[in-house]
Structure formats: structure tokens, C-alpha cells
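ok so I'm stuck.
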Amino acid sequence: MTLADDERMCTLPKLLRRNAATFGSLAGMREKDRGIWRSYSWHDCLDNVRSFALGLAVLGFKRGDKLAVVGDNRPRLYWAQLSTQALGGAAVPVYQDAIASELVYVLNHSEVSVIVAEDQEQVDKILSLRSQLPALRWIVFEDPRGMSSYRDPLLKSYAEVQAMGRDIGKSSPGAFERELDAGQADDIAMIAYTSGTTGQPKGVLLSHRNMVATAENFISAESVNRGDNWLAYLPMAWVGDVMLSLAAALAAGVTVSTPESPETVQRDLRELGPHALLAPPRIWESLLTQLQVKSDDATWLKRRIFRTFRRVAERRELLVTDDKPVPLALRIGYAVGNVVAYGPVRDQLGLRNARWCYTGGAPLGPDTFRFFRSFGVNLKQIYGATEASALVAFQRDDHADPNTVGSPVPGVELRIDGNGELLIKGPGVFVGYYKQDEATRETRTPDGWLKTGDAGIIDPQGQLAIIDRAKDVGKLDCGTPFAPQFIENKLKFSPFIREAVAFGHGHGFVATMIAIDLGTVGAWAERRGLAYTSFMDLSRKPEIADLIVQEVAKINASLPRALQVRRILLLNKELEADDAEMTRTRKVRRRFVAEKYANVIDAFYGNADRANVSMEITFEDGRKSTLDATIAIRDVAPEAARKAA
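replied:
not stuck anymore, here's the structure
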């Protein structure tokens, strides 16, 4: 019998109760606060959930209601979600850095009645929106610092709600257990909002059965052990965090730890040394860039050691990937490198204990992928979708290929339709979109297949490869297939390029807007005595344009001639989610970007040498400002690719 079919363990809060009863003295969660790690046993976790759930009931929260959490990863915010689900309600995690208009839409659309906010900053944000949130009844704040003078009747402290719950627990013993027992596998556990690449986010209804069955199937095929340490640092509004930090952790009995703050994640990661890690491509790319910069700034001897053993690791990795024998000399060199280079790098990154690491959310460049694997990090690719409870396919230890995302999670079926779109069927496929029945019918077939919107290929070994979003795949006017994400990922392997947006569909060549990486380009400029004052100032310097042209030329050498980038423009600001150019998960909103930068596209293909750009900048409180600029366009001549090679 599966967990989802067992009445005693078919919901996430019931799994928490099982853990407390079975191995309750072990650590269930850990939190870094003021430099000290504090552990909570599974008994502690259940007691906290019980008292908060009963406190919510005193405040009038009932079955079917919705509760939102907003803030950084904190045990109490995870407990608030479990408390909600124990009462038969649905959790609605929202992005902590969302601007006012985004928050209002999600909170109103989901009809949230209670919001649990991490701190004063989040409380102030919600209070400024209260007139636009008619369903809101209570705001509960987790961190009391700075809140002593607040007297708003909507406000309750987390501790106060728990105290109310403990009182009702004494006067009405068994109340929590009765509510918990009433929960069913097909109850809605959460409303997870999509990233909204093509418009307003949609509320994905995920049941306990979706979450529990997907977690159980994943655990059956991956190395997950009771008592493993995981670090929960990715946004709680991202369904991947919910799956790993709640569903899979509860199902397997994993200890979930939360960092002190987003700024201390790297340090906390190193202290914790987790047994597994999930990070989006941007983080892996950033880690590699940091290592490259440190190598460049190191002494001659350290730089020589790093580069020498990096070459050794790369040669060995290519042989292992091709299933070829590794010569004795290379094996000895790698063993020495593990002592003087690879082991210290893994320790510095906090990955000394990691049995597996995943990258997901977007493709990762093959060179970055191979670098970490060559240094002894068991990095693998994973593919998922919000509508499929986060997990669809992942790579096994014996088949890690940078060109695929692995084989399906047990219980998941894949197929490619006649248009090349990937379809999914399995226990994780969502119940539907909240209050959007038509969108549900367009996305889920009558026989239960989910239309992902991704163009994919399944190779003869059953490995899935994702090409791009199906709607984004086009053709150059010569008929060459054009997948913009493929070009962009190639470009972003350069440590000097943070983001890229490629154009080419219906045109004769590929052109790209590029946002530089301020850290690495700034360091490059400083080493050459090139002064600058801001991102805009740096990006407009001719020397920086020359640098990026050279980088693009190198990358062009690895691309088919028709797909080589011929023209570039360096943006004078980073692409931002606040400006609706990207989603909160760092995916480009292509339709919006194409409209916003229409002048640039016209200049690219009108053979102009510069483009007039008017960029609207959105501040966190919703205020807007406009930045007007004339930006030079640079050509990357075809012969430059051959010279760079």
C-alpha cells in the first residue's frame, strides 16, 4: 500500500504525526539564528503545528480557507502551511520579493483570509495593500522585532496565536487530532502559482495525493536516507521547494535546515554540509564564475595548481562519460587532484557530504555541468512542472548527460505528440487551475495527460531532452530551426554574461541583447584600471563591448554557422522580475521583452548602428520610473568566430 492510499499517512500533516510517533526525538528541522543552529525534533515540529493550527481555528479559520506565507525560509512558515493543511485548508506560498501588484493579484485571486508574514518589512508591505484585499482577516507576524508599536487590529503575533492554540488544546483535548483525521488524500494541499511567462500567474491546485505520491515515487528511485540534512533556501513559493522541503522530507524523515538569511546561504551551506542540494542553473553558473575569479586572483602557484588539475579532471570526465578506460597515469593524477584541488573546492562550496545535487528550472550549459561532475560533485539534471507537482524526470547516478534531463520519475509516463510537445501522465498531475476551468481543459486532456508546453525528445535509451518552450521554437528565414534558449544558454557559459535574450525567428540571422555580469566584468575592469560608477556606466564603455564581442565570437565557434550570433547590444540595466522582464524563477518573459524592446529588434534587423531604448523601471512599492538611452549595436563578424577558435 502506498502512503497516499493509507488513511493514516495520506496527507502531509499526517506524515508529520507519523514521524513524531516513529522517530520523534530525531531532528526534523534546524534553523540558524544569530549565528547559532537550533534544532527542532519531530515532536517539537508536531507540537508547534498543533498549537498554531488550534490558534488558527480560534481565529475562525476553517476547512477550505486559504492561508498565505510570505518571507524567507523559516521553520514557522513551513509549520504554518502544515497547520493550514491539518485544518483542511490550502497553503498559498508567495514570493517574498514580489512587488505590490503581483502580491495583490495572487492574494486576491486565491481569496486568502490569513497571511503569515516573516517580519516587519513583509507586514508593512501587506498593510499598504490592505484596502485592496477584501478577503483578508488576519496578518500574523513571525519575527516580533520592530513590531512593538504596531496596534493594527488585523495583527497577531505568531507566539500569540500559538498561545491561543495551547489554551484551546487544554480545554478541548483531541480537537487537533479530529481535524487531522478528517483530512483526505484528495483534499487540496496548496495553490502553487505559476511563474507567468505569458501573462498573469495561474493558481495550480495540488492535492495531498499529488504531493505525497510524487514524493514517495521520487524517494524510491533516489538515494534519500532518514536523518539526511537538506538546506531549504529556495523561495517557498516555488513548487520545487515545497516538494523537497515539505513533501519528500516528511515522507523520508529528512532534517530540513533553514539559513540565517539569503546573504549567508553560502556560509551556512558550508557549515551544514548537506547530503543533497537543489540549485537552479544560475547558482551553479555563479559558483563556477566565483571559482574562476578566485583562480585568476590567486597567487601564481595556486592558479597553476587549479588549472593543471582542472585539465586532469576534465580529461578523466570525458573518458568516463564515453565509457572508456581511464589510463593509470590519469587515475593517479586525479587522486592527487582530489587531495589538493577537488576536495578543497567541494569543501569550500559546502558539498563535501553531498551524495547528489540537482540543477533544474532551466537548462544548464554542458561545460558548467561537466566541470562540477569532474570535480567529484554528483550533479544531475532534473525536470519538472508546477502542474506535475514539481518532479517529472531526473537523471540517475549512472546516466548523467548534460544533453538530457533523465528518465521519468517512477509512476510517470511521457509521450511526444505530433507537434513535438511533451505530454505527462502520472499521480502528480494537478487537479486543475483555480477558478480557470477553460485553462484547465486546454492544459489537461480528458484522459489525464498534461500538456507541458515544452518541446521535447525521448531518445532510444528513454532519456528525455527538452529543446525549448514549444511556442518559442521557430525558424530563421533560411529554414534553420531556431531555439532561442539554446543560444542563450551557450552565451551564459561566459562568466562575463549574466543574461541573454536571442532573436532570430523569421529573420536572416541571430541577434542578441546581453546583460553583463556586474561582478566578473567589474573585476575584469578593476584589474585593468578601468574606472566605473554603476552598471550603466560599465556596460557602455567601449572596452566592455569589445570584451563581450570577443566572448560571443568564441561561443560562435561552437555553433552551426546559421545560428551564430551576428549582432549584439549591451543592456544598460539588468533584466529584472520587478520590471516584468523575467519571472521570479528567472525565466525570460519573451512576449513582453519583445514588445518592450521592439526598437532594439527593429535596429538589429534594420542594419542600424544604435537603438533608442526607453526602459520602465518598477520599484518595490509599485512606483515607476523611465530610463531613456541610446545604445550602440555591435557586429560580430563571421570571421571573428574562426579567429577566436
